[in-house]
Design brief:
Residues 15-191 form the PiggyBac transposable element-derived protein domain. The chain is α+β, with helices and mostly antiparallel strands. It has helices at 66-74, 94-101, 120-123, 175-195, and strands spanning 2-3, 8-17, 26-27, 35-44, 48-54, 84-87, 106-110, 132-136, 142-146, 149-153, 160-164, 170-174.
Length: 201
């Protein structure tokens, strides 16, 4: 999760490599470090980590998605100020967007296609290169599909911004995609900094 500029929060699920004996150690077969400790991170502008939580396997509550519970609890003191929360696709859902909007907080992130309440005419729409399809609900939730990516936002429209590539050509990208990439970069920088101080040493 990350909070930025006009205030971003970016939340990320991460795994810290760990091979010792621990009841909540995780195993993920397709990762470079297959054993580790899962944690959740909350970052703000300049890539500072302001929240950190270790997943011990006891987060579930009846009727509440673990991902939604984690976001609402970790960002509680930063809600109600008109900020924007950027999350990756593990957290994001229509339900979370509604909860955050009720607390005057916007949500931006990538969306898993088979999540509940997704607009199927957007999610299943076949696109050619450069095309977009978008839909906005009457509650202010905006879903956009661009190529094979699906973005959810409560603060964007289907605007395309021209950007220059590394080879000097101009391409059009949805504003929501550019904004999300900037927001999620905060956690990537935070992870890079923390990698210099690994406990494995």
């Amino acid at each position: 999760m990350a909070i930025v500029a006009a205030d971003i929060i970016y939340n990320k699920k991460k795994k810290i490599p760990f091979v010792g004996r621990l009841s909540f150690r995780q195993y993920i077969k397709n990762k470079h470090h297959r054993y580790g400790i899962k944690n959740f991170k909350l970052c703000i502008q300049n890539a500072y980590t302001i929240g950190f939580r270790v997943y011990t396997g006891r987060e579930a509550e009846p009727g509440v998605e673990v991902s939604t519970k984690i976001v609402m609890e970790m960002s509680e003191e930063y809600l109600d100020f008109g900020r924007t929360l950027y999350t990756d696709n593990w957290y994001i859902s229509i339900n979370l967007a509604h909860k955050l909007l009720s607390r005057s907080t916007n949500l931006v992130g990538t969306l898993i296609a088979n999540r509940k309440h997704n607009p199927q005419d957007v999610v299943k729409h076949k696109l050619k290169k450069g095309e977009i399809v978008a839909q906005k609900s009457n509650t202010g939730i905006f879903i956009l599909k661009w190529k094979d990516k699906r973005e959810l936002s409560t603060k964007h429209e289907d605007l395309i911004r021209q950007i220059q590539t590394k080879i000097g050509t101009e391409v059009g990208k949805p504003e929501v995609v550019l904004d999300y990439n900037q927001g999620k970069g905060l956690v990537d920088v935070s992870d890079l900094r923390s990698s210099y101080h690994t406990p494995l040493r």
